[in-house]
Amino acid sequence: MLTSVPSVPLLIDGCFVQSKTEHWRDVVNPATQDVLARVPLATPNEVAAAVAAAKAAFPSWRKTPISTRARIFLKYQQLIRENMASLAATLTAEQGKTLADAEGDVFRGLEVVEHAGSIGNLQLGEMANNVASGVDTYTLLQPLGVCAGITPFNFPAMIPLWMFPMAIACGNTFVLKPSEQDPMVTMKLVELAIEAGIPKGVLNVVHGAAEVVDGICDHPDIKAISFVGSSKVGTHVYHRASQNGKRVQCMMGAKNHAIVLPDANKEQTLNAIAGAAFGAAGQRCMALPVVVLVGEARHWIPELVSKAKGLKVSAGIEDGTDVGPLISCAAHDRVIGLIERGIADGATLELDGRNVKVPGYEKGNFVGPTIFSSVKPGMAIYDQEIFGPVLSILEIEDLNGAIEFINANPNGNGTAIFTQSGAAARKFQDDIDIGQVGINVPIPVPVPMFSFTGSRASKLGDLGPYGKQVVLFYTQTKTVTARWFDDQSATQGVNTTISLK
Hints:
Layout: E1 10-12, E2 15-17, E3 24-28, E4 35-40, H1 44-62, H2 66-82, H3 84-95, H4 99-116, H5 119-122, E5 127-132, E6 135-143, E7 146-150, H6 158-169, E8 173-177, H7 184-196, E9 203-205, H8 210-218, E10 222-228, H9 231-243, E11 247-251, E12 257-260, H10 266-278, E13 290-294, H11 301-309, H12 329-344, E14 348-351, E15 370-373, H13 380-383, E16 390-396, H14 399-408, E17 411-412, E18 415-418, H15 422-431, E19 437-439, E20 455-456, E21 459-460, H16 468-473, E22 475-483
Parallel strand pairs: 7-8, 7-10, 8-9, 10-11, 12-13, 12-18, 13-16, 15-16, 18-19
Antiparallel strand pairs: 1-2, 3-4, 5-6, 6-22, 11-21, 14-15, 17-20
Helix pairs in contact: 2-4, 2-7, 3-4, 3-7, 4-6, 8-9, 10-11
């Protein structure tokens, strides 16, 4: 007997409404294949209604005092804290990551919400008196209008919270399109945002796939789009939206490397690598899928394999789980296929995670920690972003060679070095051509007062998705040059030069 499942609503003009679409997608628990909900693929009219609501709300919201905007996000962060356990449970059910990692997902988004509460200090302009005789020049950081965000499945709490709080705090209105694979925790966060006091129309949500994404890219009333996801979709979004005159930022695929020098603290380094490579089942754009062992560090492979073997693979709700399931059956099959390609390409399979069996969760999308050594460029497991718990190991003789090797990879999201040498670390941070660098830190995602600075093929657009850069992304800098005359001032006659004397 079939039991009904809830339908995920849209949010349009302050109201949670049921879509009129005829096209729906199931939200599936990746550990059990249970259907948790169904999500609509919104119609073009529904996307248009969401944008229209945002456009109508913008004139009054942009005039709302900055302190009023800030107080909403101060309240919002408290509501998120109070509902942390419930949010994490929902996230784990629909995405698969462990409860602890789910709380981390929410918490890293919460940090951005807290940052949005400081918008009064973040949105300051510049001023100079008497740049010429009686002339002042100052800048205004003014909101753009309707902005939109397109978010991925792997961080359904954190990445939406990267986007709409800062955009709205800056005085814009927003249309959010969450991942259709796991939208439920995002909608809980949206409900809390409305409870915190975000006015109707200021935040809107539509669900969907390619057609909705294209609708957002094409809509003339959307001024800016923030995207996080795959390189294929991100490149499409960037070019389509840019051609339509929009401001666009796209954070995309990655292939992050870590260098391990033989002087590194072995225990700390091996723990860090195992956690960064296999945590969240490798489904992080800042995961660590490639390790470059320098010199004598090549002898650490057996101990790294032992660390990986000790990780527990199970459903995210089970105590002690380290590695949960992949998001979907398709993702599972793709990762298995890439492991098999790695074997066929001649890499050495040090640890095989293909045949993991989890009692009670036989239908889950599980792949265990997998390690390859003797990996080379040209192999599929090196060239492609696997987005699974698969670690590739290469061996290089010295630091210079390792830096040159990493710089040859087109991606530039993050990188790390493990060493106890300050000189080696300084050389690495100076010579490596990657946007985000960790020194004995495997996943160097900065806290929100700093900007997320992925680079090269991992990013399209000049400005990052949070930190100082995102305030510039969500505002237009207007420069004002002003001169005020005293009624009694003598005029100097007509001046036909460019001078402001």
